[in-house]
Amino acid sequence: MSSFVTGQIIEARCSRCRDVTGHVVMACLDGMPIKVECRACGSVHKYAAPSAAPRPKAETTVRVKAGHGRAEAVDATVKAEKAVERMASMAAEKKAAPRISKAEQASMRMAEENEQRWSQAMATIVGTAEPYNMNGKFAVRALVEHPVFGTGVVVELFPPDKMDVLFREGVKRLRCAC
To answer: Where are the alpha helices (DSSP H) in 97-173?
Structure first.
């Protein structure tokens, strides 16, 4: 059994943080800490040894309503406890499985469609890609090599100075001298 002194920094289980954290001993009795202050949250509470498990939940009280028997009340309480356990297990299962939002699903579908359109366009067009230049002149179905987006195909021209280019990531509107 070790001896503790007031002001000493020790490890203890915090009742507010519900974790083992650093504490400062506030009061001692016979060399054992009585009150401690959590250095994480600042709460002052009774000392709980770091190895001590949190207190178990108290058993639920069975309340018997007027006109009902004790057996009915116990059955109702047991059913309610089982329902709570089922709900907790279902919630744990939902948290364990990664959920993909509808927006993420739509984004993934769009990316797949863009990838297919780009692959088909690249397979049908033969030739070498011209390096992209903002002042360059490009024709529809011409290959363009962009320094950021990679190789793409000109899909549409918007005179006097815009064009849509299909890249692997999708269609980008770029400046050109149509």
So the answer is: 102-124
The pTM of the full predicted model, rounded to 2 decimals, is: 0.44
How far apart, in whole angstroms, are the C-alpha atoms of residue 68 and residue 149?
75
Q: Return per-residue pLDDT of the chain as tens, 178 residues.
A: 578 899 999 999 998 888 899 999 999 988 899 999 999 899 999 999 888 666 666 666 777 778 778 888 888 888 888 888 888 888 777 666 677 888 888 989 998 998 999 889 888 888 889 999 999 999 999 999 999 999 999 999 998 899 999 998 889 999 998 7
| 16: Cβ contacts below 8 Å, ≥ 6 apart | 38, 41, 43, 45
15 torsion bin: left (phi>0), alpha (psi -120 to 50), beta (else): alpha
Q: Which residues contact 8 (CB under 8 A, 6 or more apart)?
A: 24, 25
Q: Give the residues across from 157 on adjacent strands.
A: 163
Do the beta carbons of residue 17 and residue 2 sit within 8 Å? no
Q: 168 — phi, psi (to 5°)?
A: -60, -35
- Stretch (H or E) spanning 81: helix 70-96
